[in-house]
Design goal:
Length: 427
Amino acid sequence: MRALSRALAVLSSAGTIAFSTVTLGQSYSTPVGCEDCIVYWYYVDHGDRTDYDCGTATYPGHTGSDYSLRGGNGAIDEGYEIVAAAAGVVTTAVDGNFDRCTSCGPEGGDGCGTNTPGGGFANYVVLDHGTHTTVYGHMRQGSVAVAVGDSVACGQVLGHIGSAGCSSGAHLHFEPRLKNAGYGQLLDPYVGGCSPTEQSLWVEQGPYRGMPGDTCEDSQPACPAEMGRLWTCSSDGSARSRCIDGTTSTETCEWGCTAAASDADDACALAPDGDGDGVRADTDCDDTLETTHPGAVDVCGDEIDQDCSGSDAICDPGTGGANTGGVGTTDGASSSGGGGEVGAGGAPAGGAPPNSSSGGALPTGGSSSLNATGGSGSGAASGQVQAGCQCAWRGGTDRRLGAFSASLLGILVYVTRGRRRFRSALE
Ligand SMILES: [Zn+2]
């Protein structure tokens, strides 16, 4: 975030033009690339054709600073460069319009006047500097050298001086504006007796009717030399970082960092699925136990929190030990149909010894929502669990089916959560 120190945010009014007087965190370098190519200067009008220095080098209502090319339109083809006054990002780049206008109107040539793109700038570039923008108008046709979205450095060539749009002869119209301050919130970069600007916006303002200095001063904090715009893994693989326009970002990679090709972002590794239950370790509360993960069936009374609810399910003696937090309650789509089977199965009370082999707990044809969603046979497995008898869960076939159904749910839960995570990462 670029600092903007507002020396004074008061707007003064000169005629119909409102001015903002601020001290930008970023001072300007000359917007013209040539050394001795400018012959006339027309500054911002502060009312009654008064320029910043209380002179008359302006014209009524002029909103920018004009630098007129020595040789006029006849010198356009020599290609005198317009350069960025400060580092920024291109938000507008228009080219292709006639560039030899001789006055601001149709009589000045084809497409000349204010009825052109950019309100008369015709071929022009706008740079965004964070808190403010700069406009470079009337460029030479075919010279615009940047595209929207480009990051440009201070002093970088934007195009050539021309006379496109509302222009009576080859010149650069340079105009800084405050962002988000509404139309007409102009900035006169020059400080002087008749300018509301309290501190020059130029690094070196230069003499009246002379050019500002070409020193660039960018207050943007520089990125560390070793840090680029692409995400790059730290040497120990525990994080990745990048720096864009002076802003450094670092992300912890809990599961390691995977280097990518040189022109792509390095990526934090996905959490492993250590127990192969389809739920990754960043979601699974016990990634070494296949039967334990969010969405799993929690066997009551075994002191294992299979469904990652934070505690083991409590067996309910009144209903034959139907578990809470098991399949029926974790998956919103599940019906509670299995519960009835449990009761019918004559399950022992929840206090049954953990290793008891009470055959009576085995329900027959327990029907749950898992059956309805294609989990063949899983109803029986979950029914056993809901019967509250851990011993039944340990049966070979039943256990596999139970694990399968639990995994299926785990995947569903994981996918749903993963999507949510992905979406929020985009916002
Ligand atoms: Zn102008």
